[in-house]
Predict the 3D structure of the following.
Amino acid sequence: MGDFTVIETQEQLDAVIGERLKRERETLTKKYNNYLSPETFQEETGKLNTEIERLNSALEEANSKIASHDEEMAEKDKKLKAYESHSVKTRIANEVGLSSDAIEFLTGDDEESIRKSAESLKSIVRKQNVPPLASGEMSGESSDEDAALRKTLRKLKGEE
């Protein structure tokens, strides 16, 4: 071991431990080189919190747009289903021989149930409206007597 010298002044103490303090600071600087200082940490945290708030508001806006689009889609799907149902009812009514006025009385969600409804409605009604053949003529419901009278009238007018 070496000679022990008594340290009597602050300058002597600084000289003795100065080199050791310098090495310790370098070691700590190397060790914590990639770490943030508290001031830098506060700045970065503030920036990130601002970005999070901006992104959250953008997310809420996007979610509200999605919700409104979902409502619009549901409404359009409902309208489309109503149009398709009306189209199927019209087609089946024409196939069965019902008038267009009878379409509103047809019920069912699918083609089979609508067809059953149309056939049951036709069996209840059992009367087709046949348009007259010529103006003033009845649709074939007249009696033979009425037909004979019409024929006589035509002969008198000179139409036959």
